[in-house]
Write a structure and sequence with these properties.
single chain, about 75% helix, about 0% strand, mainly alpha
Amino acid sequence: MASNTADVSVARAGDAALLRGIGFWALAASVINNTIGGGIFALPGTMAASMGAAAPLAFVLGALVFVPIALCFSAAGSRIHATGGPYSYVTAAFGEFPGFVIAAVLWISNVTADGGIAAALADQAQHLSPMFSQTLPRALLVTAVFAILCVLNARGVRIGARAVMGFATVKLLPLVLLATVGFFYVHPVNLHVAALPGPTAVGSSMVAVIFAYAGMETALMPSGEVHDPSRVVPRATMTAIALVVLIYIGLQVVAQGLLGHALAGNTAPLAAAAGAISPVLYPLFLVTAIVSQ
């Protein structure tokens, strides 16, 4: 146990030169940004295809599974004030080799997830312009987005934190408006669950939902730059997770209530749901989907 404590002390000493410029709102925005990505703009169609009208229940069940996990991350982040997120937590508790394994798995999952998110970004963009269905324009778009993100990160933590809060605002406002205003346009008959889905459908849907809720582990990696992490980390993470769960459930209900059977398999379901309220909102949600990647 003494060696583990020493490991944490070394990590803290290495973080001493970092600027603790991430406060409550910046960390909460980072958790939201890492959790609500471009997948939310396609996920309702996927969930409806496997779960039918019972799809909102999958998000409720997923929250019951994920919230205890989030509580563990929140507790660890409030006690270990070192950069590295899950790597630092596992290293402090179990030693260097388990920490290395977690870091390797986390790196692989983030790289592969980035590839999937980049593909989703290009898929959403081609709804705005058929040009992005071609290989070269898709590659240029993805390259430009990653270049911009690299520049923002290189400029420092304060600029990065402001950028994260800006992206979160641009992303959340349309989603929250759709989830709230959309309730007034919902057709209750579209939410009627005629029969509960089978175990296979529920299992595959739960995998998708847990993946959708994940992301806070990435947001906690720069913990060495969080101001007063003992207080900020638990408050910001749990506030963000609660908001994320409500948004996911609300959007699934609204999309299902507006589109009915047309929701299943739709590749741009939120844009289609917004377009069902007003045609003007369709391109707005396509743009939001691109920014949200």
